[in-house]
Write a structure and sequence with these properties.
80% helix; elongated; mainly alpha; 2 domains; single chain
Length: 420
């Protein structure tokens, strides 16, 4: 028996054949009939995959490239024959990729099988994908998706990953990562809101928008609570749930910049988030009649965009300024300067405080043991600001229902840190 006939070879050939059969079975169902039918079906795809595997056995990548050129030429000829009836060339491109996957199966069978399964799923989802892109996805959402892709795949990899600037306080890569993180979390909240519909719109919108600014969310929900009537409880639940988003994003920001710091914060943050969720249940909308449902749908606020780039950039700019100020105060005043900076910036954004403190720990400018107190001070002053905003936006009645929850949450976090 030739030496190259061994188990890995037989395994690779089997995987190549399986890939061809799987993709070919999907294409066979869409092949059509009559003179205008597609030229490639289950047998053609299976043979193409095995040809790719055999090409690797015979001469490696060079032979596979030659075989791929031949199959590509045959696919072009098939496309020219049916282009008048069906201008699409998905089958022809899939045939060429199937041949290449057959060759890949001889080198990495698991990777080839995974890509083959993904390709088959993509081909099978044709109608759902077309419906989603043409009927569900809006032009604005497509623009946001492209913008997010550019930020995540172009800007983030190009950002320098080193500390620079005055006091070596700013890491551009970390700042860019925070921008992408804010955009991603906001987009996920937006998608969840669209998927679950209007019945739980206000609570879910509060939870989602809290990832961007819980203070702004409490202000907006206060406006809704004063004029929504039947939806006042939903607005209050959304306002309280926005604090859950603050806690969750604070944990994510800390874990992104300094994972070791999250270990000491994990249980206090979980206790605070659980307290906020429990308190929001007091105001969560109960079962509604059809009239109430119609009214809620008519009164629900527009979701807006998946994310606000200006908000994300403003957050990044604020974090950069906070980093510089905190590093300067820490250098001049020691730990007392860090606490002062945390208290001041916490009035505007608790996430910025967390990002600056975690970055200072990562840069070795603040001991990890001393980092807990600036974080708690920033959260506390941020809670104070939320209470003031609740009173200003929704009046005494609204504030009387929001502030006790805010106090319980921050008290639970402090207690968790103290006991820990």
């Amino acid at each position: 028996m030739p030496s190259f006939i061994d188990f890995p070879t037989l395994w690779g050939l089997s995987v190549a054949l399986g890939i061809g059969l799987l993709i070919g079975a999907e294409r066979e169902r869409r092949k059509g009939s009559g003179p205008a039918r597609s030229a490639a079906g289950i047998r053609t795809f299976a043979v193409a995959a095995v040809i790719g595997a055999v090409a690797i056995l015979l001469g490696g990548a060079a032979v596979l490239a030659a075989v791929a050129l031949v199959i590509g030429a045959l696919a072009v000829a098939a496309y020219l024959r049916t282009a008048g009836n069906d201008p699409g060339m998905t089958t022809e491109v899939a045939l060429l990729l199937t041949c290449l996957l057959g060759g890949l199966a001889m080198r990495d069978a698991v990777l080839a099988a995974g890509v083959g399964a993904a390709l088959a799923g993509l081909l099978a989802a044709k109608n759902r994908l077309h419906h989603f892109v043409s009927s569900v996805l809006t032009e604005r959402e497509l623009h946001d998706a492209l913008l997010f892709s550019a930020a995540a795949l172009i800007v983030l990899p190009l950002a320098p990953d080193r500390f620079m600037g005055p006091f070596d306080a700013v890491n551009p890569h970390s700042i860019a990562r925070l921008v992408v993180l804010v955009m991603a979390i906001s987009a996920l909240g937006y998608i969840a809101t669209r998927a679950l519909g209007p019945r739980y719109g206000l609570p879910l919108a509060g939870l989602a928008s809290g990832f961007i600014s819980s203070t702004a969310t409490i202000h907006a929900m206060g406006r809704r609570a004063t004029g929504a009537g039947a939806q006042a409880d939903g607005a209050i639940a959304g306002a309280v749930l926005s604090t859950v988003s603050t806690i969750a994003q604070l944990g994510i920001v800390v874990a992104t910049l300094q994972p070791a710091l999250l270990e000491a914060l994990l249980w206090p943050l979980l206790l605070g988030g659980g307290t906020a969720c429990a308190y929001s249940l007091l105001f969560f909308p109960r079962a509604t009649t059809k009239a109430d449902e119609a009214q809620a749908q008519a009164e629900q606020q527009e979701l807006g965009r998946a994310f606000d780039l200006k908000t994300a950039l403003t957050f990044a700019a604020l974090v950069s300024v906070v980093l510089l100020v905190s590093a300067a105060l820490s250098a001049w005043l020691g730990q007392r300067g860090t606490l002062l900076a945390a208290a001041l910036t916490g009035l505007a954004d608790a996430h910025a405080t967390a990002a600056s403190v975690a970055s200072l720990v990562a840069a070795g400018k603040l001991p990890q043991a001393a980092a807990m107190w600036p974080l708690l001070v920033g959260l506390s002053t941020n809670t104070l600001m939320k209470a003031v905003v609740a009173l200003q936006s929704g009046g005494v009645v609204y504030a009387a229902r929001i502030v006790p929850g805010l106090v319980l949450v921050i008290a639970t976090i402090w207690a968790g840190v103290w006991l820990g």
